Here is the input.
Amino acid sequence: MILVEQGQSPLILCLPHSGSDVPKAVNTRLNATGRLQADLAWRLERVFDFYKDLDMTVIRSSVSRYVIDLDKDPSTYANAPTDTAGSLCPALTLDGKRIYQDGEEPGPTEAEQRVLLFHQPFHKALLSQIDRLTRIHGRVVILDCQSMRSQIKGVTDKGLPLVNIGSLDGASCNRDLRNLFVGSFNGLEGFTIGVDEQTRGGFIAQCYGRPGQGLHCMTFLLAQRAYLRHESPPFEPDKTRIARLQSVLKDSFSRIIDWASVGAKPQAVAAISAQPDTFGQAAGQAEVDAPAPVNEATDQTANDAGPQAEVDAGMEHEIIPVDPMTLPKLPKATDAPANKNLPLQVAE
Here is the structure.
């Protein structure tokens, strides 16, 4: 299910990894490690429950990233079992442990179906909110909000800073905006900060970060020790830590909103098409190219034409209601090529 809370400010909080629902047809094939779901952004929505105070828009999915990672390119459906970081439908945990029973990993046909059921509706909903707010404000800022355990072997061996901000090295947003956000944490006791280190930005930043069109996207990754009592089941929130973090974030987000509002004019822009017309075409782009350099003074990129695929600004984006528990089990097809014309199938 896609959950959208609409606000009127120019800031969108996007939570692609906070869902935990797993369809029965997938859950019965997971092993004990997979059912633990240790790689989710557990309870992250609790951190942002002040969103109404700043009139922010929040969009999230109830579906687990073990079913599909909404911050991955949908064209990468033919996953290599050893590719933990780049897997659209992961078969391993971030530290390389198997999450499926032997021989039960999803194949390309099943991955394609998961894209149709979960990935496309999420990005259509996000695109709809971007279009709505751009018409109101002219500038829109997207925060791709994520969290992960502080210690993951092979991933955070050097230690995960409490706050991690990614901007594709300054290409997915205005650098002044990035510095403003980073600066809101500087000097705060107990806050360590990483910039374009642990995270540079994933598919969401690559797809929607278009500073030249007034769309600015930053990845905001929190170490879970910032708001959880323990980074293990049942992933219990710590009210004291959350309250302290929220007091900082309210100030940080207020600065972002003020920055986006100053000098911006409402405009109708060609919306970014986040949906492939046919499976395997990534987010309105044949390929995700390296972002063009940003002119910090004007918010303009060297390539002001934007994404390779655009849709009319007035296009209505259909949001398909999805019940994540209705995903049918497909025949095993781990070695079969994906069926490009696979229909959307929902069990009765």
